Amino acid sequence: MDIDEVFHDLNDQQLAAVNCSLGNKLILAGAGSGKTRVLTCRVAKLINSFEVRPSDILALTFTNKASNEMKQRLEKILKISSQGLWFGTFHGICRRLLKIHWKEAGISEYFTILDSQDQLRMIKRIVKSKNLDENLYDPKALQSFINTQKDKGKRYNDANNDDDKYIEIYKEYDSACRQTNSVDFADLILLTYEMFNNNPIILKYYINRFQNIMVDEFQDTNTLQFNLLKLINGKTGSLYAVGDDDQSIYGWRGARSRNIQFFEDEFNDVEIFKLEQNYRSTNEILSVANSLISKNTERLGKNLWTKTEKGNPVYLYEAYNGDDESKFIIDKIQEYVSKGYKRSNIALLYRSNFLSRRLEEELNSRSIPYKIYGGFRFFERAEVKDVIAYLRLAANSLDDAAFERTVNNPPRGLGEKTIQAVREYSKKHSISMWETISQIEKTDIKNTRALNSFADFIVIIKNLNCLLSELHLADLIKKVIELSSLNKYYESKKNEESLSKQENLEELLSTAERFYQNNIDSEDILGDFLDNAALEAGEYQSKTHEDPVQLMTIHSAKGLEFPIVFLTGMDEGIFPNENRNLKKGFLEEERRLCYVAITRAMESLYITHANMRYMHGNNNFLIPSRFISEIDDGLLELIKTTHMQQLNKYNNKTKYDDMYSQEDNFDSFSQEEEYSFIKIGQRVSHMKFGHGVILRYTGKGDALKLMINFENYGKKELVLSYAHLKFLD
Questions:
Q1: The pairing of beta strand 601-610 with beta strand 314-319
Q2: Are strands 271-275 and 25-29 parallel, antiparallel or unpaired?
Q3: Distance of CA 612 to the CA centre of its chain
Q4: I need a labelling partner for 434 at 20 to 30 A (CA). Which of 199, 484, 511, 702 fits?
Q5: Nearest 5°: CA angle at 415, between 414 and 417?
Q6: What pLDDT does 651 receive?
């Protein structure tokens, strides 16, 4: 076959990376630069020009999708079967090696692989067998500790933790895995590494066989994966590592961005190639991305460019509040759809899950189908359903489903046998489970710990029941979170998942406040809220045939691309996220994450931030993300909301630069200056109450309230920031 025919449309940088000599190579592949194509063509080059047998090439990826895509492309190019290829994920390839060398690895030939849930169940059993308090020794925290140690190449005897119980549980977990012929995901790689280290003859065989090793997404490798590559590459191998240090965004799960930076130091005679021509985005989008990422100091450096014609400006929308931000975005979506764009071509990206809620509300109100990519809708999220269940039980003690969800959540030391005993007694006597624990002395449950836990739970629910008619909806939810200790429980975890859950609980408060403002005439606000939550949780994700708008966190968006992207919630403290500022290099990883978000956009990009959001039970004034100020002047086109034009808070781009050196004094604006557009007698329109006239207004800032006489509903007092009013002539 004519190899030149296969490579004829590669650009010069790609050709150089494909046609290079053997040896250790680092390919710095920018976003949208065609790295998969380069990897595939390089394999074809090895087979065709260097006469390497296909079965002697080891290609490692991070997803099965990427591995299968490479195989399919090779089959098409070289007309060969992919059956004998050693192409796969790190875990898949290590499993294959352990199936061959199980004896040398010291495991059973018939080992089984524990998935994450299997692993967690095993750890829970160990914690229970030791009579440990799950609040102090949370199984998920222990699972994270064990996996982190293994990802560093450490068994229990080398592991580090101030609490000896962690080491003890790790040891017992390891023993349980051996007894049951089980290995977890981290073990697949660690056992392979240990097997090679302890068997030099086997290691030598694979060093000689796999003289050519290919690695995709090299920036995502952890310590153990990096060391395994060094081991099997030996001193004579050719490691072809493709990655992008500017897209290293998984430090929180063990990936080491410095692996790609230290490549030259750890491997012999390294040659570096850069793929900088972008085939995805417009020059305007790339200019913004390049400008931002240049502020990172720990990077190898590259500059993306494109041959595409001039595109749309990158827009910066400065919203008055979160409601205004969401309304603007959905207005724009409808505008694009009216021009013929598919809804599925539009992505709404955000740093944290909680930001999806206001967008979901706006989409739902306009009957626009949407899909949460890689996650759940807001009211489907476990922590939100937990709080709702507490409210349901406080309002209706006969709700057994709510009882079962809350009685041991967070953990109160109640085992499944105890819960089953409550179920059986309830069924036998045709009473609710709540009624059963209220007369617990009549049951066979005599365990002191269980009795105390039930007593504490009864106090919580009774206290909540007394508050149902006394507290405002948002305050009631705040009390649920406090009395149930859900927030304290998540605070104690100190991991990415628990931080996200805490943020969602905070957003639930904001959701409740908005629901109250939009249903101010409700006679049963709690009942209506619970019904609304149930209905939304019952709605399944929109299907592909419905052409849904795509909503996702930036982490979920990695590897994807969309014609139109809205990057929302670009407020300081939200992005970069102050809750995750726990480690060295935090700010650089957050900046890389923002860079990834920007480079998902193909044609149009909108960056939005709000000057006020309802968070932590209050309206909070915010300043724009520092990342906005780091983008060079002239690269963003500012769009101002009507509110902000009236307030004239920020007159030009340079104002952003002052926001990080001094406090904003929002109180310095007089009520007269802030709300000069509000006049007594002003006609307004409300989406629910219709037309009305302003009679008076009181307060200022986030507490400004309007008394409006509506034609069909009479007088209503509304908070301006939540009223969604349209000011008429």
A1: parallel
A2: parallel
A3: 23
A4: 511
A5: 125
A6: 37
Q: d(Cα 629, Cα 657) in Å, to the nearest integer? A: 6
Give Cβ neighbours of residue 729 (< 8 Å, ≥ 6 apart): 683
The DSSP call for residue 231 is H
464, 494, 496: which is closest to 479 by C-alpha? 464
Let me know: does 174 contact 156? Beta carbons within 8 Å: yes
What is the model's pLDDT at position 371? Answer: 92
Residues 6 or more apart whose Cβ sits within 8 Å of residue 210 = 56, 57, 58, 86, 232, 237
Q: How confident is the model at residue 720 (pLDDT cuts 50, 70, 90)?
A: confident
Q: Are 26 and 64 in contact (CB under 8 A)?
A: no
CB 278 within 8 A of CB 254: no
Radius of gyration of the chain (CA): 29
HEC states along 100-118? HCHHHHCCCCCCEECCHHH
Average pLDDT over the chain, rounded to whole? Answer: 88
Residue 607's H or E segment, with its range, is strand 601-610
The tens digit of pLDDT for each residue in 662-710 reads 333 333 333 444 556 677 777 888 877 888 878 777 777 767 888 887 7
In the 3-class helix/strand/coil scheme, how is 381-413 assigned residue by residue? CHHHHHHHHHHHHHHCCCCHHHHHHHCCCCCCC
Q: Which of 392, 398, 332, 718 is nearest to 549 (CA)?
A: 332
Predicted confidence band at 641 (pLDDT cuts at 50, 70, 90)? low
Cα(724)–Cα(324) distance, integer angstroms: 8
- Structural element, H or E, at residue 14: helix 12-19
Look at residue 590 in the predicted model and tell me its pLDDT: 95
The whole-angstrom separation of Cα 467 and Cα 465 is: 5
Element (H, E) at 450: helix 448-467
Average pLDDT of span 73-79: 83
Distance CA 302, CA 296 (A): 12
Write out the DSSP string of 648-678.
T---STTHHHHTTTS---GGGS-HHHHTTT-
The average pLDDT across 77-101 equals 89
Is residue 266 within 8 Å of 280, Cβ to Cβ? no
The answer to whether 147 and 184 have CB atoms below 8 angstroms apart is yes
690-698/212-215 β-pairing:
unpaired
Alpha helices per DSSP H over 29-115: 35-48, 64-78, 90-100, 102-105
Given a contact cutoff of 8 angstroms between Cβ atoms, the answer to whether 422 and 443 are in contact is yes
| pLDDT recorded at residue 612 | 87
Contact of 56 with 210, CB cutoff 8 Å: yes
Identify whether the C-beta of residue 712 lies closer than 8 Å to the C-beta of residue 312.
no
Whole-number Å distance between alpha carbons of 184 and 358: 39
What is the three-class DSSP state of 25? Answer: strand
The catalytic site residues sit at 35-36, 216-217, 247, 600
Find the Cα–Cα–Cα–Cα dihedral 344, 350, 354, 355, rounded to 10°. -80
Per the structure block, which two tokens stand in for 222? Answer: 């952890």
CA pseudo-torsion sign 7, 10, 12, 16: negative
Residue 59 φ/ψ, nearest 5 degrees: -120, 120
Query: Is the Cβ–Cβ distance between 276 and 13 less than 8 Å?
Result: yes
What whole-number distance in Å separates Cα of residue 262 and Cα of residue 445?
Answer: 61
Per-residue pLDDT reduced to its tens digit, 550-576: 999 999 999 999 999 999 999 998 999
